[in-house]
Amino acid sequence: MEQPTGKRKVREGTVVSDKMNKTVVVAVESLVRHPIYGRTMRRTKRYKAHDEENQCRTGDIVRIEETRPLSKEKRWRVIEIIRRADEVQ
């Protein structure tokens, strides 16, 4: 039985690397306004996420959730694969 997730952060992004075992790198894009000029800029942040079954492939769109630290840099886990890379085209 899964425990309630509470107020854990959830992000959606694109898998940019699946070279590691049980780990994927997910790029999450966000739009932020420049504080002085007001122009909208695209910011990309990369998260290392835990993928237990090694199901994710490069180009997949996934949803990740914050979790306890699993390693030095890995603090997210893949909840679900929203869309496969081959379905995007």
UniProtKB/TrEMBL annotation:
Transmembrane segment boundaries: none
PROSITE patterns cross-referenced by the UniProt entry: RIBOSOMAL_S17
Coiled coil regions, renumbered to chain: none
Gene3D superfamilies, sorted: Nucleic acid-binding proteins
One BP annotation, GO: translation
UniProt-listed SUPFAM superfamilies: Nucleic acid-binding proteins
Pfam families attached to this UniProt entry: Ribosomal_S17 (PF00366)
GO function terms (MF aspect): rRNA binding; structural constituent of ribosome
InterPro entries linked to this entry: NA-bd_OB-fold, Ribosomal_uS17, Ribosomal_uS17_bact/chlr, Ribosomal_uS17_CS
Domain of life: Bacteria
Keyword annotations from UniProtKB, A to Z: Ribonucleoprotein, Ribosomal protein, RNA-binding, rRNA-binding
GO CC annotation terms, alphabetical: cytosolic small ribosomal subunit
UniProt function note: One of the primary rRNA binding proteins, it binds specifically to the 5'-end of 16S ribosomal RNA.
PANTHER family: 40S RIBOSOMAL PROTEIN S11 FAMILY MEMBER, SMALL RIBOSOMAL SUBUNIT PROTEIN US17M
Similarity remark: Belongs to the universal ribosomal protein uS17 family.
Oligomer status and interactors: Part of the 30S ribosomal subunit.
Name of the molecule in the record: Small ribosomal subunit protein uS17
Organism of origin: Sulfobacillus thermosulfidooxidans
Phylogenetic lineage: Bacteria, Bacillati, Bacillota, Clostridia, Eubacteriales
